[in-house]
Amino acid sequence: MVAQPDVFGQPSAPKKSKLTWLRFAIPVLVVVIGGGLFLFNHFTGTGSAQAGDCLSVTEFSRTADDPKQIDCGAPEANVKVAARVGGGESCPEGGYDSVSMSGRISYKLCLMPNVKQGDCLKG
Known about the structure:
The protein is an alpha+beta fold.
């Protein structure tokens, strides 16, 4: 863009497009939203689950919702993580149920019932 002289014969600065700020705002917005989704999943999903943590699993099937990490004292906390292993590894011996999570980091959670003495189990 060529600078046009102003009324006094001096060249004026070229005018910037009003949409120039979008070139910077859109990538920043994408990073902020992506980071927020990662943190939400990390703290409410199973991304940070380790042995001893409890989960709420609504259904043990391939089409079920992802388990949610939850306080072990909550009534919905029906399983406890016995071990966390790599995605291709097997759970230790002991007949654990497992949930495999795949994505950027693949891992498997080996699960046992979250019960205490006196609890009644069904099925």
